[in-house]
Amino acid sequence: MADLRVAGLHKRRVPGHIAAMYFASDNTGPVHPKILDALTRANEGYAHAYGDDALTAAVTRRVREVFEAPEAQVHLVATGTAANSLLLATHTTPWQTIFCSDIAHIHMDELNAPEFFSGGAKLSLVPSEDGVMPPEALRARIEQEETRDLHGPSRGPVSLTQVTEVGTVYQMPALHDVVGVAKDFGLPVHMDGARFANALVKLGCTPAEMTWKAGVDMVSFGGTKNGLMGVEAAIIFEPSKGREFEYRRKRGAHLFSKHRYLAAQMLAYLEDDLWLQMARAANAACHRLAEGLRAAPGVNLMYRPHANIIFARLPRGTHRRLFEAGAEYHLWDGALDGGPEEEPIAARFVCDWSATDENTDRFLALL
Ligand SMILES: *Cc1c(COP(=O)(O)O)cnc(C)c1O
């Protein structure tokens, strides 16, 4: 993972040009038409503001049904960073530390928002393997903290990402193991589910099984990367924490006044299994791409692609050829210029719900 940490994201853009062979990210894709229809339907007359509207009440009921959690506290925000930071802040004191993997989005991609919203809690990093935290590594890291009494951080929540940042998924036994370690120390568990649906359809389990039944206390339930315009649900299974989250959301400037437009999206997402259909489509597109990459000479997959993200190494010259033909994706640990053409360079490929077979096949034919 060293490469990823050091090099960060390299972008190559042709201004104003969206390629047909587009694997850059799942938040660059379109909004599903059913979501836009739901927004149009919600756009009728007046509704109470700040979440005091019928659609918000309906979405709360629906999320509770989907998660088989009648007491769950459900709050909508517009970004995953807000969901993660506000949930973690609600479960962390400023003198605690949050345990997460060394490639966690909360560590690498949220500009210290979890530290900011928690009022100064720190993150303790656990070396990841294949994107997941090995339970022994988490245990060792937890044991290192809270040994310095007044002088060092106390132990706070454990945060895990499902689908992980490298496109792998915690299988159920691994999920139970890692949550079990947190529970051994009495620590709450947060799940960053920016790609929750993609993991769920991969595992074929229920939302309850992947969360509270496994001991997860709170979830950032993603929607934006899976066909919404911009809504994530922050779900807390322990009802007493809901009020504090609401204070923090308002103070964090994430209480939307025209809340019905957030609710309408999330409600339509959960209607007729649209969220699962979109995740299945994204995963299937990624599977097709992964098979093609695997079969191509000179290409090496870096992790097992379980969901809708692939990391692979391709020769620099191959990247150049693909980019010149109009493909779009991110190089991950090197630049197009300044080295031998045969040198392998890592790249990330992401498929969203709208990815087409034609798109993938054109790319693979070029490859
Ligand atoms: C995209 C993503 C988020 C949310 O990011 P925002 O840009 O704040 O919406 C959170 N966690 C993971 C793992 C992500 O990939």
TrEMBL record:
Gene3D superfamilies xref list = Aspartate Aminotransferase, domain 1, Type I PLP-dependent aspartate aminotransferase-like (Major domain)
State if tRNA-binding is listed as a keyword: no
On whether Disulfide bond is a keyword of this UniProt record, the answer is no
Q: Which GO terms describe its molecular function?
A: lyase activity
SUPFAM superfamilies attached to this UniProt entry: PLP-dependent transferases (SSF53383)
Cofactor(s) needed: pyridoxal 5'-phosphate
Q: Which UniProt keywords apply?
A: Pyridoxal phosphate
Q: Tell me which residues make up the Aromatic amino acid beta-eliminating lyase/threonine aldolase domain.
A: 23-311
Highest taxon in the source lineage:
Bacteria
Biological process terms from the Gene Ontology for this record are: amino acid metabolic process
One Pfam match? Beta_elim_lyase
Subunit comment: Homotetramer.
User: Which family does this protein fall into?
Assistant: Belongs to the threonine aldolase family.
Q: What is this protein called?
A: L-threonine aldolase
Originating organism: Aliiruegeria haliotis
